[in-house]
Protein 1
Amino acid sequence: MDKTKIIITREEIARRVAELAAEISRDYKNKNPLLVGILKGSFVFMSDLVRAMNIPAEIDFIRLSSYGRCTESSGKIRIMKRLETPIKGRHVLVVEDIVDSGCSLSYLLDFMRLRKPASLKVCALFDKPSRRKVDVPIDYVGFQIPDAFVVGYGLDFGEKFRHLPDLCILEE
Ligand code: IMP
Ligand code: MG
């Protein structure tokens, strides 16, 4: 059994999510934003974020293939589950669990820009800036973390650990 060590507690996450939700609610007041979560990792963050916001929002999810990330630019990334909501003219906020190389996000933003949303921004709960290979703008960042593989709060290692309420690192 792999051992996990907590690096950000559920209470710290909840406090930060509330701050992000307040900021987003202010910025998107009367804009009926469409929040687009990237599956699967963002499902926990998304559900906490929307419930902490004090404005209405619509929700959709998209799923990207996870293999091939970061090799030749972002050429190997594919969409495994499409959006179900037209985004043309919408204020779109992409909700991501963690940004690592930035490849998947960069691909997704290019894809979405072609569909002409009214605005397009990104909210990522965790950010590993030292790992970045593609420069991607992140408008709302929860926590910057060092270069370590983390699990919990929706994030997995081989589909395990998503259920853990705190952010953890895996210990051998
Ligand atoms: P990127 O394209 O390299 O930025 O990869 C981003 C995706 O890889 C995230 O949405 C996560 O699903 C996954 N990922 C990156 N780092 C971690 C980690 O430390 N733990 C779990 N998943 C991660
Ligand atoms: Mg993800």
Protein 2
Amino acid sequence: MPTHFRRDGDVALLEIDNPPVNALDLQVRSGLQAGLRRAADDPAVKAVVLCGARACFPAGADINEIASGVAFHRPILLELQAQMEALGKPIVAAIEGAALGGGFELALTCHARIGAPEARVGLPEVKLGLIPGGGGTQRFTRLAGPAAALEAITSGTELPAARALSIGLLDAIAADTVRAAVQWARRLAGGAAAPVLARAREDRIAVFEPDLFVSFRAARARAFRGQLAPWRIVDAIEAACTRPAHEGFELERQWYLECRESPQCKALMHVFHAERAARRIADIGPQVAPLPIERGGVVGAGTMGTGIAMCLANAGIEVTLLDVSREAVARGLERIGALYGESVGRGKLTGEQADAARARIRGAVEYATLADVDIAIEAVFEDPALKCQVFERLDRSTPPRAILASNTSTLDIDRLAACTSRPQQVVGTHFFSPAHVMKLMENVRGRASSPQALATVMALARRLGKIAVLAGNADGFIGNRMLQYYGAEAERLLEEGATPEQVDGVIEAFGFAMGPLAMRDLAGNDVGWAIRRNRALPADERWSPILERMAAQGRFGRKSGRGFYLYEGRERRPDPQVLALIQEVSRELGIKRRAIGAEEILARLLHPLINEGAKLLAEGVAARAGDIDVVYIHGYGFPAYKGGPMYWAEREGLAKVIATLEQLAASHGARWRPCARLREAAARGGWESA
Ligand code: NAI
């Protein structure tokens, strides 16, 4: 049975035992129902303690049950909670590990909560496009007040025990958690007054800033735009403060059901599964053990190298950061210091955590300092000859067991591997900028990369808190290969009549963090042009001259204060001179400018992603359509609540996607013709079944 009933004197212990995370599936719920009945019926039981086996409180509902509807098979969570509140005997939760989602809602239903020092609690439902549906928004708000609830539940943050205690979600923290909970329960049972349930608490919802909800909604308008669940969470927390309890609970339930049926929830569930599927590599089984990584070297202390060094150090890895000169190293270390300062300022790290991580990074100019590293990650200029030299030196200086990885965004991993005597240990680890923030790691498999080397960098990604996807060694890997045509199309739209504000506006309204031209300005138009100059195009295509002219005029983007826009700090403004430049290009090309609607702009930007994505599947560069979605969401700002480009295409209808591509191929070149893999998927009704 996944639920055990034990007695400790007059206290009944209900222990949930459902490996690995004690999820509240149907069997557990039935077990709890039976256990609660037994506790109710036994007069010798004066109080109950709820806890989880293996020092782990339930970490949530069973996500497959939510998707399949089994979460609605009785007893549902709400029925259990009603049973708990009607028990007539105090119930105390002993929270060890992570009590999340439905697990935490169960704990919130108890009369008191005792946490282990390292326990974490939270309601992360928003990450799946849901709002908590088991009274979580109501009880959390009644215990901790609306301001704390808004912060925590709309972001889905996990709160450490100390914070949970300070805002009133926990009643105490104790190392011997279960024993402390038993004592607490016994004390409540022996007390004169009946203990108060969260449902009945009024004190924290009675007083709050009068404009709290108005100002919170205004502050988050941009971050939540286009999404359903975060807004419904705000509504539910407001209801907890302004409506009678039963109405608040009822509204939460209605909004939970609304969210659960929404396309956004389905898209986010897809992303959740895709992220996990991306960890699996078809020909590498669990018997391939990753190499332990204690020490790492990072070569190149520039933008990327410094960020990568921070990622490693944050995960407890000792890092040597190497560059060509003491000055370059000093600049890199200074930048790292500044970035850690920002992290502390934003509350991402405590001062002690930042100091400890920073102390793990030491600068160097001699390759001899890499004599004991387990992995070296190269992040020098994107120059093949230079990178080859660096790999030769790494091969000579690092221990034979060490993995040699490159952060290159475009270069051939096999050519770098050929510069070493250990091609089987050479892989790509493509981080995204800023590396210490962006979640994606696009690992790249070279022809000779060994299963162990790949397993090591996939495991490393998890240790760094990144989401990894394994790509084949093809030009641009997954992300940049698809991006190249997306970016190019933005300029074609400008030539034909659109403005930068329109193009970016459509993509941002769709939900991307940033439009393609604003993104160019961020990365640098000089860099974009330099990359493009070295790339070949199919014979029936051309690059728009716009980017080259921007670079030639010193319109590098944000760093020079002007690019496709004018910049004041982070604020961007339209620039009439850019429009004049674009109009001149249209004139020279003999293009009659026209008004282009939002629908056409969106189609022309998204369709190249899909067709190139399908080609990547056909070529085996991407193993799954879901891998491509994960890359676009975590590396390129595609809105997660729309599921990624490949998922979006399936929802649009692959037949419709094909029709649009055929239409565009007539004017845009053969590359736009729907590829065979896309037609196959359309015929079979989806990517994975094709
Ligand atoms: P960067 O120009 O900021 O830094 C390069 C660093 O390498 C400089 O500090 C330079 O002194 C150092 N360096 C040059 N030759 C060296 C050598 N022989 N030994 C040791 N250090 C040497 O360049 P960034 O932007 O950090 O790019 C580095 C790599 O990361 C490139 O391959 C780039 O394509 C890739 N990348 C860049 C991204 C970005 O957004 N900047 C994103 C993802 C990958």
